[in-house]
Amino acid sequence: MFDLNEMVMAQEVLVMPPYSGELFTLTYGALVSQLLKDYENDAEVNKQLDKMGYNIGIRLIEDFLARSNAGRCNDFRETADAIAKVGFKMFLGIVPVVTNWSASGDEFSLLLENNPLTDFVELPEGHSSLNYSNILCGVLRGALEMVEMEVAVWFVQDQLKGDNLTEIRLKFIKRL
Amino acid sequence: MTIYTLYIFDRNGTCRHYSEWNRKNQSGLSIDEECKLMYGMLSSLKSFVGRMSPVDQKESFHSYRTNKYKLHFYETPSGLQFVMTTDLNVGNITDILQQMYCNIYLEYVVKNPFCSREEAVKSELFKTKLDEYVRGLPIFATKLS
Amino acid sequence: MTIYSVYIINKGGGLIYQYDNNVPKIEVEKTFSYPLELTLKIHDEKVVVAFGQRDGIKVGHVVLAVNGLPVNGRQLEDGQDVMELLNNDDKYPLNIKFGRPKLSKNEEIMFAGMFHSLFAISVQLSPVPHSTGIQMLETDTFKLCCSQTLTGIKFVVLSDPRQVGQDSFLKKLYEIYADYALKNPFYSIDMPINCELFDVNLQQALEQADKITVG
């Protein structure tokens, strides 16, 4: 079990290195647009982004654990809080809202009011099934797999497609 | 106080790193076999401790001692295990093992994109940093026979 | 001193004596509606909480009873399968009792054997020559102390993690073993100890040890 307050305090001490956030956003944009050129359809690009995210996630989890001093979660609610309040804050500087719990407590949504990956982005026509920020799903899946949790992660809403909010849904599948 | 050996295992039981400083006795096994035996012993110890504990546990064991040496154990939630053997005068060093994870393993292995995630760490930088860190610890006595 | 339990293991790794002195009972009872906010799995023929820790119910706890009916392994006393029952939304609300499982006799024997091997491996893996096996094992919830006699008998005591002074208790235990088991002509060496005098004296020693910290 972990103490959330302790973790939030711990990470405030650890200031992120002063890289430009814009450089990050631009780099990601260039990556997605290159993928769109290299692959034929949106589904394939989504898949590639998810794969890359997964490879980031399985490494990023160590950074998360080392810097947050987090212990093992024994409840999906703890996991949700750790992701939103510590993970997103630590790596993206935002704190999504955790909501829309399923009755059995195995599914929830993360609501993002502004997604730093999509600053400056306008989705071109004909890419309605592209999940531009799909890399996030892969990161979450990879990171959780390393702490022995199998989850499914997908986009429900996306501001890039005209929705009011960006919503990522996580479903707990099993303990590995 | 003195440090004898250090083993780092990943969640699949692969020995990612082994080093020794003042070791005075060999197990009579090749280093590969010894690592396997060590990892096996630690897994059994973990399940032993988990089931024998009279109350619910958060973490597993952190050390055992014999009449000659002490073995310290720290495991991250992602299943990395840091195992150090020392003499008996060393107290609880969980924080040292944790530091080793945060400041050395994380920086020079996890963040190094060319470090394979399946085999022993080859990075010389990592090995040097780790060796420096261990030699700089107060529990690493300098004057030794 | 808080001693949880005592084990005596013979030189072949067989458990010849076990006594639970002061094992805390951990049980939580709660009424649930459907669906259950806990992930359960079958482990070692028991229904175990795998994920979803809440209200004192911890990961690793087993289902002990449903609606007051005791659970035997995977089944209720009346033969119903526990998992089937808990997955059936018509049966809710259900009152379920969870708790930390007690070691079964078989598990005690198995873990005694396991400790015996761990002890031997810790000798082999020693970085310094002439080491004994594990004498003390420290965890966040208990401390295990072990003394092995020259004849190969192991006395193992599980106690509170903050406890010190188990050595004298282990020594006392050895004396009781020598006096009331070995000197009893009807006790066969290396076999389980079923001697009343041994039990009585061990309990006295435990009571005395309990008082030490109080005073």
UniProtKB/TrEMBL annotation, chain A:
Family stated for the protein in its record: Belongs to the TRAPP small subunits family. BET3 subfamily.
Oligomer status and interactors: Homodimer.
Role according to the record: May play a role in vesicular transport from endoplasmic reticulum to Golgi.
Primary subcellular site in the record, as a coarse category: endoplasmic reticulum
Coiled coil: none
InterPro entries attached to this UniProt entry: Bet3 (IPR016721), NO_sig/Golgi_transp_ligand-bd (IPR024096), TRAPP_component (IPR007194)
CDD domains: TRAPPC3_bet3
Family matches, as SUPFAM superfamilies: Ligand-binding domain in the NO signalling and Golgi transport
GO cellular component: endoplasmic reticulum; Golgi apparatus; TRAPP complex
Protein name in UniProt: Trafficking protein particle complex subunit
One example of a Gene Ontology biological process annotation: Golgi vesicle transport
Alphabetical UniProt keywords: Endoplasmic reticulum, ER-Golgi transport, Golgi apparatus, Lipoprotein, Palmitate, Transport
Location within or outside the cell: Endoplasmic reticulum; Golgi apparatus, cis-Golgi network
From TrEMBL, chain B:
Coiled coil: none
Transmembrane stretches, start-end: none
Keywords of the record: Endoplasmic reticulum, ER-Golgi transport, Golgi apparatus, Transport
Annotated compartments: Endoplasmic reticulum; Golgi apparatus, cis-Golgi network
Any one annotated GO CC term: Golgi apparatus
One example of a Gene Ontology biological process annotation: endoplasmic reticulum to Golgi vesicle-mediated transport
Pfam families associated with the record: Sybindin
PANTHER family: TRAFFICKING PROTEIN PARTICLE COMPLEX SUBUNIT (PTHR23249), TRAFFICKING PROTEIN PARTICLE COMPLEX SUBUNIT 1 (PTHR23249:SF16)
Family according to the record: Belongs to the TRAPP small subunits family. BET5 subfamily.
Subunit-level organization: Part of the multisubunit transport protein particle (TRAPP) complex. The heterodimer TRAPPC6B-TRAPPC3 interacts with TRAPPC1 likely providing a core for TRAPP complex formation.
Entry protein name: Trafficking protein particle complex subunit
Provenance organism: Paralvinella palmiformis
From TrEMBL, chain C:
Swiss-Prot/TrEMBL GO biological process terms: endoplasmic reticulum to Golgi vesicle-mediated transport
Pfam families xref list: Sybindin
Keyword Transport: yes
SUPFAM superfamilies on file: SNARE-like
Keyword Membrane belongs to the record: no
GO annotation, cellular component aspect: endoplasmic reticulum; Golgi apparatus; TRAPP complex
Gene3D superfamilies noted in UniProt: 2.30.42.40, 3.30.450.70
Localization per Swiss-Prot or TrEMBL: Endoplasmic reticulum; Golgi apparatus, cis-Golgi network; Golgi apparatus
Superkingdom of the organism of origin: Eukaryota
Keywords, ordered alphabetically: Endoplasmic reticulum, ER-Golgi transport, Golgi apparatus, Transport
Entry's family note: Belongs to the TRAPP small subunits family. TRAPPC4 subfamily.
Assembly mode: Component of the multisubunit TRAPP (transport protein particle) complex, which includes at least TRAPPC2, TRAPPC2L, TRAPPC3, TRAPPC3L, TRAPPC4, TRAPPC5, TRAPPC8, TRAPPC9, TRAPPC10, TRAPPC11 and TRAPPC12. Interacts with SDC2. Part of the multisubunit transport protein particle (TRAPP) complex.
Functional note: Core component of the TRAPP complexes which has a function of guanine nucleotide exchange factor activity for Rab1 GTPase. Plays a role in vesicular transport from endoplasmic reticulum to Golgi and autophagy. May play a role in dendrite postsynaptic membrane trafficking.
Protein name: Trafficking protein particle complex subunit
